[in-house]
Amino acid sequence: MPRSLTQHPYTLLARFYDRLTPYAPAMNRHARGKILGRILARARSACDLGCGTGATALDFARRGLKVLAVDFSPTMCRLTREKAGRAHLPVRVLRGDMRRFRLPERVDLVTCEFSSLNHVRRNDLGGVLRSVARALPPGGWFYFDVNTAKAFEEELPRLKEKVETSDFVVFLSGSYNRRRRQARVDIDWFVRAGRLWRRRQEQIPHGWWTDTEIRRALGRAGFGRIRSWDGPEVRPAKMKSRPGHDTYYLAQKRRG
Ligand SMILES: C[S@@+](CC[C@H](N)C(=O)[O-])C[C@H]1O[C@@H](n2cnc3c(N)ncnc32)[C@H](O)[C@@H]1O
């Protein structure tokens, strides 16, 4: 792929994210409702990690929580700030890398939804979990969901999708290499610029871990009471989620 055409991940995808994934906020809300009900009711503060365009952060702020939102993409951060501003909701947005972020103060709950964690490389899982643990007090909670190897193996080689709107056309395709443990989504954009269409490409690499690897890494980072759910158990039934493709985790930072 010519370098000049390639964008940083989550540049154009950030700009058009809400139009490509309109189902995500309701799906996330549904799973949170099932898994986090009592924890959310007691929490006073939360940080949404990989916050995207801010739907979850705004939900938390509407509940009266003190909210921080972290994302690596400057466009995602800007969109979250703008959304919070329009809704007159107090959300503090920090541009940060989940592998090494630091919050100005600890929060009761960290969330990382819609497989944001899969965006880091395999070896970076420990860094993410240590940073999350640092952001929590003893007894604080980490809630996240990940795509599994099965999802990438079954979905990515078949991914051939075209989305056409009046101001952009996008082609999505994917690749998966089990031996190298590499998975990638390739996004080919044609964005209207006046009477012309500008072509841009983004590549989104994905990492993944087995359940054992995730539990072991959580334990090493200081988490206990680890529970998990399969996607179809916690996602809206109408989404027809496939068994074994997404796993939701809830873990508590150990007290001692
Ligand atoms: C699939 S989107 C999910 C966004 C949001 N959580 C949602 O549920 O719609 C993944 C998000 O992770 C962010 N991201 C990717 N790598 C990151 C990193 N290393 N640190 C922080 N955020 C990252 C992307 O910019 C993007 O906003």
Judging from the principal axes of the Cα atoms, what is the shape?
Answer: globular
* N-to-C CA distance: 51 Å
Enumerate the spans where pLDDT stays under 50 for 5 or more consecutive residues: none
CATH architecture descriptor of the largest domain: 3-Layer(aba) Sandwich
Tell me what the structure shows.
The protein is α/β, with parallel strands linked by helices and 256 residues long. The chain has two domains: 3-8 and 152-206, S-adenosyl-L-methionine-dependent methyltransferases (N-terminal domain of TfIIb, Single Sheet), CATH 2.20.25.110; 20-148 and 209-253, Vaccinia Virus protein VP39 (Rossmann fold, 3-Layer(aba) Sandwich). It is 31% helix and 32% strand. It has nine helices and eleven strands. It has helices spanning 12-15, 17-20, 24-42, 55-62, 74-86, 125-135, 149-155, 211-220, 231-234, and strands at residues 45-49, 66-71, 91-95, 109-112, 141-147, 160-164, 168-177, 182-193, 196-206, 223-230, 246-253. The strands form two sheets. A seven-stranded mixed beta sheet has the order 3-2-1-4-5-11-10, with helices on both faces. Strands 6-7-8-9 form a four-stranded antiparallel beta sheet. Bound molecules: S-adenosylmethionine. S-adenosylmethionine binds next to α3.
